[in-house]
Design brief:
Layout lengths: L1 H39 L5 E7 L9 E9 L3 E6 L11 E2 L7 E6 L5 E10 L1 E13 L12 E7 L9 E10 L5 E10 L3 E8 L3 E3 L4 E7 L4 E10 L3 E12 L2 E2 L16 E8 L1 E2 L4 E5 L8 E5 L5 E3 L9 E3 L5 E3 L3 E9 L2 E4 L4 E4 L6 E8 L5 E8 L4 H13 L8 H4 L5 E3 L3 E6 L2 E8 L4 E7 L6 E7 L16 E4 L8 E2 L7 E6 L7 E4 L2 E2 L5 E9 L9 E7 L29 E8 L6 E7 L7 E7 L4 E6 L6 E5 L6 E9 L2 E10 L3
Parallel strand pairs: 18-26, 34-40
Antiparallel strand pairs: 1-2, 2-5, 3-4, 3-6, 6-7, 8-9, 9-14, 10-13, 10-15, 11-14, 12-13, 15-16, 15-17, 19-23, 19-41, 20-21, 20-24, 22-23, 24-25, 24-26, 27-28, 28-31, 29-32, 30-31, 32-33, 35-38, 36-37, 36-39, 39-40, 41-42, 42-45, 43-44, 43-46, 46-47
């Protein structure tokens, strides 16, 4: 029995050691897991801060208040930026204490910075905040002037010939009158000033100078310009405060640091879509911006950088930093200014294919038939060339009908209702549209029939024609911390009332009366309504826009600074079309190439090669002509390529077939 007990004792000891080791291992691992869990899950402290300035320059009654504290066990408050935070020096925060106060802060000579850190349990779980006191807040008698500039434009995507409204507001946010204020404007040549209005001072379009003079504290004044857009692409208008008191500021100083006051400059832009055909490209050159970055809007709606991985069928960056665009889309750019990437607020919009724009000239009711007619004209309508050919034939005594396009049974315009007839010179009439049709859809097309443009035209009120209200201003701007301005109808209609709507169809009524003050930015509609029949006349749009800084689109992989900056205005050639089209194709003996090159191009050439890359012919192109002839009678049958080269850069290539059969 003794032997048995002895033999059993050693295995028992071994078993106890094994069990103890397993228990210790799991206990240690569990503890380690708990520690990891605690270090990973950190409920960071939350709090808010506010501070009160001193009541006079000589008193020391300023204070800093930290309130609504949550998830905090310790805190540190350090004056200045030199001393690092140290959890060992932090002050424990008693339970149920949700507020910390620092009193008796004196008037600083310059800036006084307080760095605040609240901890939760340990040094690795914390939240920081910085509070800055500045002497300008405690000036003697609290008498100071702070002049700021804000600006905006009512339509950033107009058409050629449209009028856009530019508004600049100068505000004095201080209490002291500011003297001798002057504002200068710089605008693109593609924007033409039609008229202007200023609430104070004098504005001259020669030099674009707005001399305001004195501006009392708490007051603001406004300048409104009506500008006509004359070309496609990007157009800019920048403004900056050029003088205040005895100080004169240059354009380059507009965004300089150290100028007392708030925002003192701004830039607004508009972009008109550029149309290119399948045999054209669009080249943008910003000569002074070497190494500029180009972007395109991708399928996700963000701007992605164009580089060597971008599909070359979309766009290509050339050696001189210019961009050659081959397909439609939205394109933008950015440049480095100091530590900041500044981008274009407005993208360049390129449309690969679209029909002629439809412009409505008149909509009127028929007196004998319960219907109405629409008269329109098409812009850039190449069908008018066909009309001219038939007109020339008519002058040669050929038997040609007056309605030339109808004779060949081809019209570039179709309508969802009514009959379309050509009036000549790109004008068309849609006749006898039934009065019960609330609107008509018009579709224009190019010569190929593949590119189209659509416009919906609303029906007139043929029962009892009502006029259109006239507003004192169709576009108003609302600024931060200001009551929205009111719209005012300045015309009357007998037997009718003035009604305001949320929608263009005049179904959601929001107000009645000649004066209307909108509560938020947006587009509103006003019309006359017959008091007896309750029929509504044509609506007029009223725009209430917020004067806020423009914001660039989201850029992938890059932080882009405020685009509302005069330093981002592009300088150099904003682009031109390059194209070359060869015909007939296939060709036998003589090939004709019509071409177009930018006005700014120094030289251009057409290069012809075979499939093996052997050059067949190189022709230097002239700006005075737009067509060349190429003899191909000695070329063997097969496939060849021709390229348009502008300033040493191949813009694009096309294929031709030579066949002598």
């Amino acid at each position: 029995m003794e032997k048995f007990n002895l033999n059993f004792r050693y295995p028992s000891i071994i078993i106890h050691i094994i069990l103890f080791g397993i228990f210790f291992f799991f206990s240690f691992e569990s503890k380690a897991e708990n520690n990891d869990s605690l270090s990973f899950i950190c409920k960071r402290p939350t709090f808010t801060t506010r501070h009160n300035d001193v009541t006079s320059p000589t008193t020391s009654d300023g204070r800093l208040l930290i309130t609504t504290i949550d998830y905090a066990t310790h805190y540190e408050i350090i004056e200045g930026t030199n001393t690092p935070f140290d959890f060992a020096q932090s002050v424990p925060l008693p339970p149920q204490q949700f507020e910390i106060e620092i009193k008796n802060i004196s008037n600083p000579t310059g800036k006084k910075i307080y760095r605040i850190r609240l901890y939760n349990e340990g040094e690795n779980c914390y939240t920081d905040e910085i509070v800055t006191f500045e002497h300008i807040n405690f000036a003697a008698d609290r008498d100071y002037a702070t002049v700021e500039l804000v600006q905006g434009i009512d339509n950033s995507t107009p058409k050629i010939g449209d009028l856009v409204t530019f508004t600049a507001i100068i505000q004095n946010k201080g209490t002291k009158t500011s003297e001798d204020i002057e504002v200068r404007l710089i605008q693109s040549l593609s924007l033409e000033t039609i008229n202007f209005y200023t609430e104070q001072g004098q504005f001259t379009s020669v030099g674009n100078i707005w001399r305001i003079g004195k501006l009392s504290g708490g007051k603001s004044v406004k300048l409104v310009l009506r500008l006509k857009v004359k070309s496609t692409g990007l157009s800019y208008l920048s403004s900056f405060i050029s003088q205040e008191g005895v100080k004169i500021y240059e354009y380059a100083d507009a965004q300089a640091s150290g100028i007392v006051g708030g925002k003192r400059s701004g830039t607004s832009c508009v972009t008109v879509p550029i149309a290119i055909n399948s045999d054209e490209v669009y080249k943008m050159v910003l000569k002074e911006y070497k190494g500029i970055k180009w972007y395109y809007k991708d399928a996700s709606g963000n701007f992605s950088e164009i580089n060597d991985k971008t599909n070359p069928a979309l766009a290509v960056i050339n050696k001189d930093s210019s961009l050659t665009i081959k397909q439609g889309g939205e394109f933008s750019f950015s440049k480095k200014v100091g530590d900041c990437n500044i981008s274009s607020c407005c993208p360049v919009i390129v449309e690969s294919c679209s029909g002629p724009p439809i412009v409505v000239d008149s909509v009127y009711c028929n007196t004998t038939v319960d219907s109405y007619n629409i008269v329109i004209h098409l812009e850039n309508d190449k069908y008018s060339l066909i009309e001219k050919v038939f007109f020339a034939m008519a002058n040669l005594n050929f038997p040609v009908l007056t309605n030339y396009l109808s004779r060949i049974n081809t019209l570039p315009l179709t309508s969802s209702s009514g009959f379309v007839t050509s009036l000549g010179n790109s004008s068309y009439k849609i006749e006898n549209i039934p009065a019960f049709m609330p609107n008509v859809t018009l579709v224009s097309s190019d010569l190929t029939g593949k590119c189209r443009n659509v416009r919906i035209v609303n029906a007139p009120n043929c029962t009892k024609p009502l006029g259109m209200p006239v507003l004192d201003e169709t576009t108003q701007f609302i600024n931060e911390d200001q009551i929205p301005p009111a719209f005012l109808v300045i015309t009357k209609e007998a037997g009718a009332e003035i009604v305001w709507f949320e929608d263009e169809l005049a179904q959601k009524q929001i107000h009645t009366g000649k004066k209307f003050r909108a509560k938020k930015p947006g587009v509103y509609y006003v019309a006359f309504r017959d008091k007896k029949t309750k029929s509504v006349g044509p609506t007029v749009k009223a725009y209430l826009k917020e004067l806020a800084a423009e914001k660039p689109g989201k850029f992938g992989g890059e932080d882009v600074c405020d685009c509302d900056n005069p330093l981002m205005v592009p300088q150099g050639d904003l682009g031109d079309l390059s194209s070359a089209k060869a015909y007939p194709n296939p060709v036998s003996d003589l090939l004709t190439v019509d071409y177009r090159i930018p006005k700014t191009a120094a030289k251009a050439a057409l290069n012809f090669s075979n499939v093996n890359g052997k050059q067949m012919k190189l022709i230097e192109l002239s700006k005075t002509t737009n067509s060349v002839k190429v003899e191909t009678n000695r070329w063997v049958d097969g496939t060849y390529f021709y390229s348009l080269i502008v300033d040493g850069i191949r813009t694009f290539s096309q294929k031709i077939i030579v066949s002598h059969q």
